[in-house]
Amino acid sequence: MISFLKKYVNKFRYAFGGLFHGITHDRSIFLQCLIAVCVIIVFAFFHLTMIEWVIVLILIGSIIALEFINSAIETIVDFISPEYNEKAKIMKDYAAAAVLVMSIVAAVVGLMILKGKL
Length: 118
What we know:
Largest sheet: none
Binding site for substrate: 67
Number of domains: 1
Protein name: Diacylglycerol kinase
Subcellular location: Cell membrane
Family: Belongs to the bacterial diacylglycerol kinase family.
Strand content: under 5%
Cofactor: Mg(2+)
């Protein structure tokens, strides 16, 4: 039973280690987190409903999670293909595009929420 708990505690420790490392060592992840904090501060002045906050937080979490996945993909591709490779570039571009698409959707939804508050 102790080893079972230790195993799961370690999983959380590794996950939080990855979170901390990503925020402190990856500029894109740090930027997304900084933008998230700014959005939360700005939206706090608009008295959002509970469902609006849930939507905003899901979008923020999705973008940050996608940025972590994007960074992981970039790291793997750079490790496997240290030399320039067109297919490696395409893989990295696709991962970056996923973050861009989610960011655009989040911005549109955020503006829709704010429009209803003005």
